[in-house]
Each structure stands twice: as structure tokens, then as C-alpha cells.
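Lab notes, practical 5.
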Amino acid sequence: MFAETLRKIVDNLDGGIAAVIMGLDGIPVETYVRQNDKVDVNTVAMEFSFILGQVRKAGDSLQVGSLEELSVKAQRLFLVCRMISPQYFVAIAMTSEGNFGKARFLARLAQPSLVAQL
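Output from the prediction step:
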């Protein structure tokens, strides 16, 4: 079930490369790759899982509320990470020319379905 939801996100996104559901422990639950790229989306998401955990802790200690989303733009990759539970997130990787706004929208739209499947 996760794979179908991830496929819909990536395939409906201009520049979409891949999507992964991962725990903050860095263990992937499901991955969908549309476009083979030199970037391994599981490795990228695993590295950013640590950062998400740190940002979440900082938000808690500063009492600004829970982390909902984190975006990273690099020369070759745009990554949108959205928390779907306190311990899991979905990461969407796209080309640097990808549609960032649509990625955020699709992640938010898919969140209830992904939560129901956890």
C-alpha cells in the first residue's frame, strides 16, 4: 500500500525522482524510485533522518511546536521531508528544477493515507 501512495506522489510531480518513508532511526519502510539517479535516496533520507530528529528536539526545547516539514535545496537535488507521525517521515526527492510547491502539496495530501497504513 505504501508503494502505491509513494508512486502517485512521484509520478505526479514534475522532476520527481523518488520518495521514501523512513523512521527517525534511519531505517526505510518503503521506497519508490521513478528515475534512476546518481543519488541514492535511501542514503540521503537516512542522513537527513538525524537532522530531522535534531530539529524536532530543538523545536521541543524552544517550545515552538512540533516539526511538520523540512526542505533542503542543493545544486542537483530538492528534498522535501514531511513528518507523518512522531517517529516516521516521508521524503520526496526531485531534480533542482522540480516543482517544490506541488511536492509539499502532494506530501500533505498523502499524509492521512500514509498515517492510516502505519
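Observations recorded by the TA: The longest strand covers residues 16-23. The two ends are 10 Å apart (CA to CA).
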